[in-house]
Design a protein that fits this description.
Radius of gyration: 14 Å
CATH superfamily: 2,3-Dihydroxybiphenyl 1,2-Dioxygenase, domain 1
Bound molecules: carboxymethyldethia coenzyme *A
CATH topology: 2,3-Dihydroxybiphenyl 1,2-Dioxygenase, domain 1
Structural class: alpha+beta
CATH architecture: Roll
Number of helices: 3
Strand order of the largest sheet: 2-3-4-1-5-8-7-6
Number of strands: 8
Order of helices and strands: EHEEEHEHEEE
Number of domains: 1
Helix content: 10-25%
Shape: globular
CATH class: Alpha Beta
Strand content: 35-45%
Length: 134
C-alpha cells in the first residue's frame, strides 16, 4: 500500500530565513519552492540522497501551519508516505478504522495528490498519504 517515506514536513515561520540552514549548512539540494493555495502554505522541497524535507511557511492566519506554529513553534509537522494509489490507501486505512481528515484526495505541492490521517488517530503524528505527480 505504501512504498516509502516521501518526505518529512517541517513548519517554519519563514522559508527565506530557514532555507540557508538546510541548503548551506546541511548541504541539501533545493529542488524548488511553490505556493500551495489550497493548503495556504508556501513550500520548499529539499533533497539529500533519497530523502526529502518539505519546509512549510503559512500564507494566511487561518492556515493549518499558522495554527501549528502558534501552538508549538517551528518543528516537525508531518510525515508523508508515498503511494501509487492514494484512493486505495485511504480506503484501506478507513477499513482499518483510521480517522481520515481527507476522505477524498486534495492537491499537494509538485503535482502530488495527498490525504491526511488525523493525528489523534495516528498516535500524535500528522500522517500524509502522497501520490507523486510523475
Ligand atoms: N501534528 C500532531 N498533532 C497535531 C498537529 C500536527 N501537525 N496539528 C494539530 N495537532 C493536534 C493539536 O495539538 C490538537 O491536540 P490537542 O487536542 O491534544 O490539543 C489536535 O491535533 C487538534 O488540533 P487543533 O490545532 O485544535 O486543530 P484543528 O482541528 O484546527 O487542525 C488538523 C488540526 C491536523 C486537523 C489540521 O491542521 C489539518 O487539517 N491538517 C492537514 C492539512 C495540513 O496540515 N496542511 C498543511 C501541509 C500541506 C502540505 O504538506 O502540502
Amino acid at each position: 500500500m505504501l512504498s516509502r517515506i516521501n518526505h518529512i514536513g517541517i513548519a517554519v515561520k519563514s522559508l527565506e530565513e530557514t532555507i540557508p540552514f538546510y541548503r548551506d549548512q546541511l548541504g541539501m539540494t533545493l529542488l524548488g519552492c511553490e505556493e500551495v493555495t489550497e493548503q495556504k502554505v508556501k513550500v520548499a522541497m529539499l533533497r539529500i540522497g533519497e530523502s526529502k524535507i518539505e519546509l512549510l511557511e503559512p500564507t494566511a492566519d487561518d492556515s493549518p501551519v499558522a495554527k501549528f506554529l502558534e501552538k508549538n513553534g517551528p518543528g516537525v509537522h508531518h510525515v508523508a508516505y508515498e503511494t501509487e494509489d492514494v484512493e486505495g490507501a485511504i480506503a484501506h486505512l478507513q477499513g482499518k478504522g483510521a480517522r481520515m481528515i481527507d476522505a477524498v484526495p486534495r492537491s499537494g505541492a509538485h503535482g502530488t495528490r495527498i490525504a491526511f490521517v488525523h493525528p489523534k488517530s495516528s498516535n500524535g503524528v500528522l500522517t500524509e498519504l502522497c501520490q507523486p505527480g510523475h
